[in-house]
Amino acid sequence: MSRTLIVTRPAPQAAVWVERLRARSATARALPLMAIEPMADTTALREAWHLLPQRDLAMFVSANAVDGFFAARPAARQWPRTLRAAATGPGTVEALVTAGVPPALCVAPRAAPFDSSALWAELQGETWSGRTALIVRGDGGRDEFGQALRAAGAKIVFAQAYQRRVPQWSDDEQALARNALADPARHVWLLSSAESIDHLATLLPGADWRGSVAVVSHPRIAQRARRAGFGRVLEAPPLLDPMLSAVASLGDP
């Protein structure tokens, strides 16, 4: 029997990943560890859209940031023809292109690790003094990219596009989690967020993770997974081929 890959991304993205994994003959199920809620008041987001032509860069921390920002786009407002959209990884770039940003205007790390440090490495050679960057994110979060831009002399403006919450699991999702804990050798957790791992403690208090396997998309997430108690943690870029190769390296269950 093959292993079941547990996709823990927020629900809309998890569904896409499950579909793509199944197309590659993998057994995959969605079990979101993060709930994404839209902003109840989008006034600030609409204002951010109106001011886009005055920005020198717009950086999106995730695909969720893209979705939330474009959901608030005022009627007839288009993406500025020369404004670059920065992203930390391929999933966010895909969301930007799907939303209508020309691929030529998207800038992102060319290879793993896909994070803010790698993104800054693509941009740090430019002159940023006196320029303004918009950072679109959720509630709070890391600010390494903004700090780097400030240190280079740029002005930073933030826009909150969504809120992160602990998800409310359905009965089927709770059953999947219990099965994964009861038979860890036949399940692999695909983890793409350190904060999501923290939610496991709330959703599954007292769980013993020593027999469980996780495939994670960044060293920072790997550290959090090990602290949570996962017995085996493999790292792979958030792309289908590397993640499936990591799972294949485990051998038969």
Features:
253 residues; alpha/beta; Rossmann fold; 2 domains; 12 strands; 20% strand; elongated
Q: What do these coordinates show?
A:
With 253 residues, this protein is an alpha/beta fold. It is 38% helix and 20% strand. It contains ten helices and twelve strands. α3 (63-71) packs parallel to α4 and α8 (194-203) runs parallel beside α9. The protein is elongated. The protein starts with a strand and ends in a 5-residue tail after the last helix. The mean pLDDT is 95.
- Please tell me how large the radius of gyration is: 19 Å
Topology pattern, helix = H, strand = E: EHEEHEHEHEHEHEEHEHEHEH
Which CATH C-level class of the largest domain is it? Alpha Beta
Give the low-pLDDT segments. none
| Average pLDDT over all residues | 95
Structural class based on helices, strands and sheet pairing: alpha/beta
Count of DSSP H/I helices: 10
Largest sheet: 5 strands, parallel
How much of the sequence is in beta strands?
Answer: 15-25%
Helical content, roughly?
A: 25-40%
Shape: elongated
Tell me the total number of β-strands.
12
CATH topology description of the largest domain: Rossmann fold
Question: Strand order of the main beta sheet, please?
Answer: 2-1-10-11-12
Please state the oligomeric state of the protein chains shown: single chain
Separation of termini? 8 Å
What's the number of domains?
2
Tell me the CATH architecture of the largest domain.
3-Layer(aba) Sandwich
